[in-house]
């Protein structure tokens, strides 16, 4: 009997330990939302991750009840920083609040939301007992209010920009002092975040001024002096959690080399920036990300010329600074692709698929002019062009021209359902699994291309179907072709 009793005790203790272990591997969030009017609300947590992380970020969706309460538990192995994204309203009438919180196993974050006006939707910080999250949300709210003030009342001059920067600097120094002694992980994060936001304001405020006054602002070099050490921010691993960090570092390098922070750089300027970068920052991930940022920007703004081969050699020379051979080759390949953007070049040898799943190449359209529309189902401007494209296709039916629409949707099922909904006809191809758009250095859609009957690029940026220029252009080309025959 005693043996049986002992066995039950052991089993009970094991169960309790298991339950406790499970509790320590879950985190929770709950709260109440008060709105001025009844609107749908969606909430999602998205884990902050540095670039190159292979695992997908944790992103639990939090259901909001009819009574506007919410509660969610989710598996969490280790403490981490998350974006808490709250959307109020629906498409066309919505606003989004985003702030950062610190989630840890065995802890539930409690929040009370009150809508202060139609643009501001933050948790009430006075009701937050969790001091670490109280600090993070207070910081987000103050930065939001400061940024909003700058947009609503643009700084008139450099001195006004500096006043706003000083407000942020004074605030975050006081905040760090106020919460000194709390979780060092969160305090360090808050410090790094404060620097990131200082840099955001530093580079954004002159642009706000220029946008308001329609005149370029004369910014002295002294304006860009930082109140903290460069390595203090950029060498901290937590800086990699902020997607804008590499962009900030690029602007810092520009201004320290006598170039406008947003300037389009030449290859020699990039080379000088890389030299300064390696002297200033030792964080290898940050160095690689910043070099990548500069070189990708160069590719995107590159204009084909007779110096292409020389530029390609210089580009490859700069690419050796990457620590990753894979990254180096990827960017060099992208630069090689620029040859497809020059007038007279052949189309990329990409394998596209039609609705039946059959492979189609651009070679199959040789002998005709080919007008290509690169689009996607999620792209509203693309969808607006479709009726004009269909009218254009009917108007030139029987002529020596093919109209080809290439979808860049990720999923072929999405593409096919959109074809049905919009009743699209003609040559419809799926390019979501090919490198066609990347090979043509297409950075925005809709994008229209025109190839001649020899399969050579005639226009890299052809007029849109809705434009007044497209029909006269096609009429001229087709009539000229008839004369030549």
Automatic annotation (TrEMBL):
It comes from the Bacteria. Its main location: other. One of its GO terms (molecular function) is oxidoreductase activity. Residues 1-23 form the signal peptide. Keywords: Cytochrome c-type biogenesis, Disulfide bond, Redox-active center, Signal. One of its GO terms (cellular component) is cell envelope. GO terms for biological process: cytochrome complex assembly. The keyword Ribonucleoprotein does not apply. InterPro entries: Redoxin, Thioredoxin-like_sf, Thioredoxin_domain, Thioredoxin_ResA/DsbE_sf. The lineage of its organism: Bacteria, Pseudomonadati, Bacteroidota, Bacteroidia, Bacteroidales. It is found in: Cell envelope. This is TlpA family protein disulfide reductase. Coiled coil: none annotated. Residues 341-479 form the Thioredoxin domain. It comes from Tannerella forsythia (Bacteroides forsythus).
């Amino acid at each position: 009997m005693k043996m049986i009793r002992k066995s039950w005790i052991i089993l009970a203790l094991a169960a309790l330990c298991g339950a406790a272990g499970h509790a320590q591997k879950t985190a929770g969030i709950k709260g109440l939302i008060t709105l001025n009017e009844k609107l749908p609300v969606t909430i999602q947590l998205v884990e902050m991750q540095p670039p190159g992380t292979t695992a997908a970020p944790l992103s639990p969706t939090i259901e909001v009840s009819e009574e506007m309460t919410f509660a969610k538990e989710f598996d969490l192995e280790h403490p981490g920083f998350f974006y808490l994204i709250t959307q109020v309203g629906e498409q066309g009438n919505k606003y989004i609040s985003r702030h950062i919180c610190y989630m840890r196993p065995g802890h539930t974050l409690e929040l009370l939301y009150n809508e202060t006006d139609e643009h501001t939707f933050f948790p009430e910080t006075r009701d937050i007992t969790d001091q670490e999250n109280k600090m993070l949300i207070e910081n987000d709210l103050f930065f939001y209010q400061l940024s909003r003030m700058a947009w609503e009342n643009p700084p008139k001059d450099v001195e006004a920009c500096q006043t706003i920067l000083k407000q942020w600097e004074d605030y975050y120094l006081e905040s760090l002092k106020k919460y000194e002694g709390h979780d060092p992980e969160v305090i360090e994060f808050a410090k790094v975040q404060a620097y990131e936001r200082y840099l955001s304001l530093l580079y954004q405020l002159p642009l706000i001024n220029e946008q308001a006054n329609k005149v370029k602002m004369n910014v002295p070099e002294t304006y860009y002096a930082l109140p903290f050490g460069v390595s203090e921010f950029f060498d901290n691993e937590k800086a990699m959690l902020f997607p804008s960090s590499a962009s900030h570092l690029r602007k810092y390098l520009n201004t320290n080399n006598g170039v406008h922070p947003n300037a389009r750089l030449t290859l020699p300027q990039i080379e000088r920036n890389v030299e300064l970068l390696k002297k200033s920052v030792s964080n290898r991930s940050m160095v690689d990300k910043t070099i990548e940022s500069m070189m990708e920007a160069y590719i995107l703004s590159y204009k084909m010329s007779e110096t292409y081969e020389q530029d390609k050699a210089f580009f490859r020379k700069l690419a050796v600074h990457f620590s990753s051979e894979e990254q180096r080759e990827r960017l060099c390949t992208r630069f090689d692709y620029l040859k497809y953007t020059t007038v007279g070049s052949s189309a990329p040898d990409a394998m596209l698929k039609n609705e039946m799943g059959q492979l189609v190449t651009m070679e199959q359209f040789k002998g005709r002019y080919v007008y290509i529309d690169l689009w996607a189902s999620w792209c509203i401007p693309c969808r607006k062009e479709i009726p004009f494209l269909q009218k254009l296709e009917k108007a030139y039916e029987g002529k020596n021209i093919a109209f080809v629409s290439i979808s860049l949707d990720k999923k072929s099922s999405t593409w096919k359902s959109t074809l049905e909904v919009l009743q699209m006809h003609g040559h419809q191809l799926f390019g979501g699994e090919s490198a066609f758009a990347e090979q043509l250095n297409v950075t925005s859609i809709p994008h229209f291309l025109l190839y001649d009957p020899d399969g050579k690029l005639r226009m890299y940026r052809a007029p849109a179907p809705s434009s007044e220029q497209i029909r006269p252009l096609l009429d001229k080309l087709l009539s000229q072709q008839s004369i030549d025959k």
